[in-house]
Amino acid sequence: MKIRFIKYRKIDRVKWDALIRQSPQALFYGLSIVYDTMCKRWGALVLGDYEAVMPLPYRRKFEMLPYIYQPYFVQQSGVFAKSEISRELLEKFIKRIPKRFVRVNYHLNYGNSLEGTNKDWIITQRKSYQIDLSSGYEVIRSHYSKDCIKNLKKIDNPEIIVTDDIQIEQVISTYKEAYGQLNEKISDNKYERFALLVGLLEKLQKVEKLAIYHQQTLLACGIFVKAFGRIHYCLGAPTKEGRAWSATHLLIDAMIRKYASQNFYFDFEGSEIPNVAAFYKKFGPEENHFTMIEKGIV
After folding, report:
1. What domains, with CATH codes, occur in the chain?
2. Could you report the per-residue pLDDT of 13-32, keeping only the tens digit for each?
3. DSSP assignment of 43-106, as one string?
4. What is the pTM of this model?
């Protein structure tokens, strides 16, 4: 079967999403709605009659030079297929990326195994952290660090309320206030696109929002996407008041507690930032990896 490049206007969304739903590599990041919302332009490599697909978000530098990039808030892309993906098939897809894209900076998904070296590509393994929730809350909590337990005890107060009563825009605003200076490349437009995506996913019942309050004061809040056996910690932050309570510990713990003993993985989404990775490790997750591929000069 032939692998062909298709521009986003001609992609069959029904066949695409049907493939993602049955794919062993399924992540919500594979859904067409993600690329339609988060990208101004995207195309895809498609094998046969949607036997396998590879979304390719792209931009133009100086309105002339097209290049492939990984959109903010979309951690993984890569190849999604109806069965397991061999390295041979993965490499065929990568080789079929049109040469007109002068640079590629792209994340594969967990199901795309690509290690070692390649003379044409820079291949980097990026860390991710996850917890198997099926083992039950007490087992999971037994792996929390002493510091994590200490902070949870600090916020163990009858006046603390955990609720889903918060708006998407307020979560994003809280995140921007807490971490905006550390993520200056994320423009207001990108936050707006993410808010739109979360709203659309919420209508599909794939979103969990969580907020921590002390009386009526917001301490922390987060957005989680629940799909295909994973609960993704997409975005979360404490307020200034919440930092004193270490409220983000309770934010994570509350979501873990809610879905403990169910067949989900809690996915922290990983981080190459040492302080962020150290925070995630307090909850005793397993380390996982996905692959970043790079090529070109833009």
Report:
1. 3-114 (3.40.630.30), 129-287 (3.40.630.30)
2. 999 999 999 999 999 999 99
3. EEEEETTTTEEEEEEEEEETTTEEEE-PPTT------EESS---HHHHHHHHHTS-TT--EEEE
4. 0.94
